[in-house]
Amino acid sequence: MHHMATRAPSVPVMIELADISTPREQAIVARIGKIDHAVIDAAIEARFQAVPVLDSDDRCLGMIDVPHLAQLAAKGEVLTPEHADGGCVRLPHLVPVTSLVSALAESGVILHTSDPHDESFPPDWFGIVSVADLNRPIFRAHVYQMMVILETSLGQLIMDEFGDDWGAIRLLSEGNQKRVREFWEEERDEGVDLSPITTVTLSDLFHIAAESNRVWNLMGFAGPAESRTVAYQINDLRNVIMHPVRPLIVNRKDLMDLDAGLRAVESLTTVLLKRIGMVTG
């Protein structure tokens, strides 16, 4: 477990979309007029649900579903502004991780504007982010940062509530108590004398919270059963994040699970940071 920093963590965790997006000039887009079959092939290969529709001035008119675009091309029809649907989902260049994932869960593709302080971009510039971009390592690192803040905050809350940190450890199973004690003793033998809470896993912390009426109540739960349900959801997300060989998103269910999991992490972290006095309001 990571140790809580003395400086208040930055929440919500923000992501600079240019770090994971494709610039407008390199993006897969459909243009008004004759439909380019290469665009359809590229969109299908990239697993895009939809692509932006641009006019001759590179202005985004809206989005079009890739299957619909393919149907129009098969019929030999040209793409018109009327085919653009729903407008262009645009986000600022810097957004909370949760906002990005929720927007992608809703539309499949989003556009983002440039940094207004960066004058090197033309006025109508945009970047495009698809669900596939969530598999980039830098995005995973942002999610990991969210998990670290949650874990350290929960650990601090438990340390604050138990005058004797070993009292919290005794709420774990005998096997996990033994593991924590052995690791703590190894650290002490190396000259590191910290609370045994710093040696536990996120799963251990959630178990302690569920076993302590005071802690699960401070976390805003109606009871231990509710805390366990959220714990399972967040632990599942953490397990995915900690296995970087597997893509984060391979299907629609993965995306929806990520969306729900991140919102649970952000909501619980906000409560915890208030409880330990790291943020006010």
| Helix and strand element order | EEEHEEHEEHEEHHHHHHH
Strand order of the largest sheet: 2-9-8-6
Give the overall shape. Answer: elongated
Write down the overall mean pLDDT.
91
End-to-end C-alpha gap:
27 Å
Largest sheet data: 4 strands, mixed
Q: Assembly state here?
A: single chain
Q: Give start-end ranges of low-pLDDT stretches.
A: none
Cα Rg: 23 Å
The helix fraction, in percent, is: 40-55%
Number of helices: 10
Q: Into which percentage range does the β-strand content fall?
A: 5-15%
Computed structural class: alpha/beta
Q: How many strands appear in the DSSP assignment?
A: 9
Throw out a few tags for this protein.
single chain; 10 helices; 281 residues; three-stranded mixed beta sheet; alpha/beta
